Please model this.
Amino acid sequence: MELHIVIEGKKDLAGQLYRQLRDAIHTGRLAAGEQMPPSRLLSEQLGVSRKTVSEAYSRLSLDKLLVGQVGIGTFVRSMPAPKPREQTAGDLAGAAVVSRWAGIETPLRHPAPEGQSRYEFIGGNASKTPFPATEWRRCINRALQLENATRGRYALTEGLPGLRTAVAGFAGFTRGVRCSEQDVVITNGAQQALDLISRVLLEPGAVVAVEEPGYPPARELFASQGAEIVSIPVDDQGMVVDAIPAGCRLIYTTPAHQFPLGLAMSQQRRQALLARALAIGAIIVEDDYDCAFRYEGRPADCLQSMDTHGLVAYVGTFSKVMLPEVRVGYLVAPPAILEAVLKAKYLTDCHNATLIQNALALFIKEGHLQRHVRRCHAIYATRREKLLHRFTTDLAPWLDPVPFTAGFHMAALFREPVDIDLLRRLARRLDVGLYATDPFYHGPPPKSGLFFGFGAIDTIDIDTALDRVRDVLIQVS
Model:
């Protein structure tokens, strides 16, 4: 890899080289500790004498910008951080658009590892302990071998056939989704699936119905397309269908494990939602993010399996059943929007990384995923029981758990008003990470509560963490 230097003419060659290297160091293009090319190599690349390069290096060394190490090479010295460029967004012709995007909130961004507590109830994090790293490594290695046959080529936008077939089988087996590989689009997480749907269906002024409370990144994503967002309240049966306005183009819902409250949409409400969507010509986005884990009651049909008119876009992800780092989601698209979705994906990122696709296809096909889900189910069921036991015993005076039958998070509402900010600060001092339900409401919440994810916290730590929460609640009550 050649160092980018431009030499013009035949005069002051050492000076030209000196000034460009000096500027590259001052601006940070040549980072501290980076090794410079040997003088012989750089002279050949630039078509100048070695003496010219040596002279420029000597001047930079005298300026204390370079340092030589005998027998090793020449390196860039540590420098103060480069000054930021003077230009601001206000100088741009597109300043208004930049400002609008800069003002968009990015809720639920996970804190950096150094900002997390010893006992974390953060949501969305799957348990790392039971992940079959050895089996996954083998699948990755075999995927590398498969890559040899197609290396250097672009792949199908919709995803590799092997993975799409595996996903169709997995979704059908675990959730009753009715689809073939032709209906499946592999995406970079569930968020890209939502983005693709919004790109092909929304425009400024389009009406989108979302649950209240609900998943903030979905709301912000739809709003970024210029859509008018209508908050639809959630009761103990799920989304209140009668509140969905006529003219609504898109309906976003989490029926199996409502985010964040955790309750499940009743069968009657599901049927009413499908009927409402048919009446107004809306597409329903069914976000089935963590419903591979179900603990009690009979399985309920997913909306997609009940849909007979091609109205439901089913969105799934492997971030919850495996690890977020995998960054693979999928969309089972209804026929009416499938071709448009594929074109939108092609224009935005062409296709997902084929290495991970091949590895995941093997991981599913060989049964590793199903075995992993069963292991995690047993772990999450134990953690769930621990939490519910505490909410019905010593934490009962303060917190009322919302019933839930799936997933690995739950919500508990306060029986009496509590200063949540103070509670969270005091808990953080005791190394417990707590999260309020209030930020999931677009408007004022009818009742405040706490959101308890139990994927990131070890089973043996739950009682210790909740003991500390109880002690803080006694202090702030």
